[in-house]
Amino acid sequence: MHPLSTLLMSIGLCSVPGALVLAATPSDNGGLRRGEDAARLICTACHVVAKDQQFPPLLQPPAPSFEEIANRPGTTVGSVRHFVTHTHWDEKTLPMKMPDLMLTAQQATELARYLLSLRKPKAESP
Length: 126
What we know:
Elements: H1 3-10, H2 32-42, H3 66-70, H4 77-86, H5 105-117
């Protein structure tokens, strides 16, 4: 088994479908907080998901940061949701693709909404 697969499985990121359960809060803003919590719990192994995340990504070089992905012209909630639910690495293919995070549709949407919340506002024209 590839070392990254071993790492992800050891921290439980590739084990049980829908295993990520985060409590809703009254001020969650459509799951934005749950999306951020999921990103910090799962995605920081490979990505910078927030400038203040506790640890740097284990993957070196790291995958693109969430801010970089958010600011790509074609990035939408739908495109991110599709990517995290359909782009999977098979442990044998190099270069690596993202592992199957086994997120529910709601979790994928919340993660995508958090990622898009990092998009920088477009500069206004003079």
